[in-house]
Amino acid sequence: MARTKAAVPYHHGDLREALVRNAAREVARGSGEALTLREVAKSAGVSHAAAYRHFPSKVALLAEVARGGFDRFAGALTTAAGGASLGARITGLGRAYVAFATSEPGTFRLMWSPELKPFTRFPGLAEAADGALSVLLVALDDPTLAVPPREAAMVVWSALHGHALLAMDRQLEGPFGVNDPTITVDVVAATLGRGLTLAAARAASPRKSH
User: Fold this and answer.
1) Fold of the CATH domain 10-56
2) pLDDT digits (tens, 9 = 90+) for 23-73
3) Per CATH, the architecture of 65-204 is what?
4) Which residues, at least 6 apart from 163, have a Cβ–Cβ distance to it below 8 Å?
5) Using CA atoms in the order 90, 93, 99, 102, what is the torsion angle rounded to 10 degrees?
6) DSSP H helices in 44-180
7) What pTM was computed for the model?
8) Of 33, 44, 49, 84, which is the most buried if we count CB atoms within 10 A?
9) b or e along 160-172 (b: 16 or more beta carbons within 10 Å of the residue's beta carbon)?
10) How many CB atoms neighbour CB 189 within 10 A?
């Protein structure tokens, strides 16, 4: 009687990691919206029932992919935010922001997907997103600021995020004829730095008597 080869089961952590890795690969390809948990399970060589033991839904799986994206994003921002001056730090943040968005567009879009809100629904996702925000808060904690660091972070984040989306969708090429978004992000960063410190500089300078 022929002996059948027993299937080698995944260890608990191995299967979970395989599911996240396979889903991340599809997200990177731009297939995140059409992704199903059944397909990810099949690509890992297991039944969808086995996948459900680790992730109750496709959204939960994508949230874990997004969490990994935020961790890498925060790491890239941290590395770039080491400049000695406020302007240098904002420029470094801007370059890192655009570089991450344009190199991982699928993951970047997923990270900000409304489908994942609120982040607190998923283990570790809110903490990972806050980790990226904390890099901005630390980098912008500067005595030359005209506004509190948290307000400055909101302004810088809004501008850099919008610029990154424009760069991803190649929207800067038409009106500005720019093929390299690192050129325009430096202009955005420099303008932000000047604007956030100008009011403070004016307040500190003595008024001229008339």
Assistant:
1) Arc Repressor Mutant, subunit A (1.10.10)
2) 999 999 887 777 888 888 888 888 878 888 899 999 999 999 999 999 999
3) Orthogonal Bundle (1.10)
4) 94, 97, 98, 181, 184, 185, 188
5) -90
6) 48-52, 58-80, 86-103, 105-111, 125-139, 149-168, 173-176
7) 0.84
8) 44
9) beebbbbbbeeeb
10) 25
